[in-house]
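hey so i finaly got around to running the thing on P-type ATPase N-terminal domain-containing protein from Gossypium barbadense. pasting the sequence first so u can double check i didnt mess up the copy paste, my clipboard has been acting weird all day
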Amino acid sequence: MSGWGTPSRTVTLGRVQPQAPALRTIYCNHREANFAHRYKGNSISTTKYNVFTFLPKGLYEQFRRVANLYFLMVSILSATPYSPVHPITNMVPLSLVLLFSLIKEAFEDWQRFQNDMTINNTLVDVLQAQGWESLQWKKLQVGDIIRVKQDGFFPADLLLLASTNVDGICYIETANFDGETNLKIRKALERTWDYVTPEKACEFKGEVQCEQPNNSLYTFTGNLVMDNQTMPLSPNQILLRVFSEYLPSISSNVIKACT
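ok and heres what it spat out for the 3d tokens, dont ask me to read them lol
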């Protein structure tokens, strides 16, 4: 019961926005279980336009430039009966500039599309039915176990499970990321060192409980749960897509995919 003289207050309740869970659970080597979470695919697209948006978005980008907008206004004014010049003298140069600019944009976007197709169709070895099967990068799913060979690139953000080195170490190159040419060391958890061959990798069952995808490249928070044993993960076991594998061949688990 409120006391006398206490001023009344009105509380307005707003709609609560749904929030993503703080952690995501990834079932290793179990596509059916991960399908229910509807994780993003691994296909990338860096194009700016598609068939339907090219003309409106392209014109919008052109008229964001002050010069093009100025000549558009001049062309409109020249079409009025008060203009001393014929409108074609302004419209033709502007139309040619827009035409060549749109052709240039279309050509550059086509090149980006071709580059995306090349990357998405690159092959990687994925564990399927007790053997390695070559699949396109775009067909990778979260939770897949893959094998990356020497001098290969990582098709997604990966958790290092094993290496052909007996101590679970691999060497990666990060020149595409930070420009450094010296090799970095990544080391798998000792508990997973034995999962090198496809026969052994098929026996790997576990869960990765980790943070949601974010833009942090130097930190990682997560745990690997195997046989009721929880083992903490660190950036030392994470292989980002921007890295390339130098030595030796490794087995990895896909923990993040891109769009």
